[in-house]
Here is the input.
Amino acid sequence: MDERAQELLERIQRWALPQGPIECKGTWLRQVGEMRLAPDRPWFPFEGEQWFEGDGIEFRWKARARLAPLLRASVTDAFQGGRGLLVARVLGVIPMARSRGPATDKGEAMRGIAELPWRPMGFRESRRLTWRAPAPGRLHATYDDGRTRATLEFQVDQEGKVLGCAASDRPRLVGTTAVDTSWRTKASDYREFDHFRIPTGAEVAWMLPEGSYAYWRAEITDFKALR
Here is the structure.
């Protein structure tokens, strides 16, 4: 790892873990937010919980969304055991969407990397996660388990706050085809929970030829370390 990458990783951890390293099995959070299915579709609210396992990039997200006054949906999004999964059901039983396979694995691995600010002890070099810093304040993370490879670029400020990340090739489902598409996240409103400093505001967008399409935004309402 180059020296600039090492310095950025240390800066992030000093900011996110102001009392020093914390022994834990992972982290958990609760969030409220809204999402939409297309640029011309309305936003609908959701409530979610998310579990981050260990200090890698594995996660499991479960949400309940209100699509209409009397119509509810449940969503599970995960990257576990090197495999990605997306499942959505209306009224908890009627299939609405389901995605598995190499493109889903890559897309969910990218989400797992992008959400490291909610699991900041993961900002370190490991067997499957490597780092480099091509320029000041820019930190590239690459996940590679021999089957799935994914790279993102984090933007880091002078204090060590992660401001967001970007990728040029996250798979996006267009009809039944996965198309590599530019993708951006924003992180904001850092607060301290359970000895961690984490961003409590987040927004995610696809960068389409016709412009930015924000499709998910949320606020963290609770957070804790899993000991």
